[in-house]
Amino acid sequence: MSSGIAVASLEDENRMSESSKLPPQVQERLLRLQQLQQTLQSVLGQKQQIEIELMEVEQALGELEKMAEDTVIYKSIGSLLVKTGKAKIIAELNERKELLNMRVKVLSKQEERLRGQIKDLQTKIQQDLQPVSP
């Protein structure tokens, strides 16, 4: 088990010594690329959570449409269940759906922008690392 740790630390040392051989501009670009990739992962995670919530809201609205107007509906507020009217809960869910759709659009635009920045930066790094032809 300890040999695996030694191998990992040797690999880290090799990566560090390799990156220290790179020009400062390339090191900065690699760091920026790593930051952009982390930000993209965060945005994708947020977007996925919101899309799941959006599906749940749409499913709830679909079920409410099937119910009669006089059906007793309870809404969860914290640890309480509170009786509510069908029209009121549909209005609340539609408002939530609108908000979630807007957030998905914003995150999608952010994702697109980040992907473009990552692609541009990867291209620059590849150009930086190409050997100079005589």
What would your notes on this structure say?
With 134 residues, the protein is mainly α. The longest helix is centred in the C-terminal third of the chain and has 44 residues, at 86-129. The chain has a two-stranded antiparallel sheet with strand order 1-2. It has one domain (25-128): Helix Hairpins, CATH 1.10.287.370. Helix content is 80%, strand content 7%. The relative contact order is 0.12. Residues 1-8 have low confidence and may be disordered. It is rod-shaped and about 75 Å long.
How do the strands and helices of this protein lay out in sequence?
Blueprint: H1 2-21, H2 24-66, E1 73-77, E2 80-84, H3 86-129
Antiparallel strand pairs: 1-2
Helix pairs in contact: 2-3
In short:
With 134 residues, the protein is mostly helical. The protein contains three helices and two strands; from the N terminus they run ααββα.
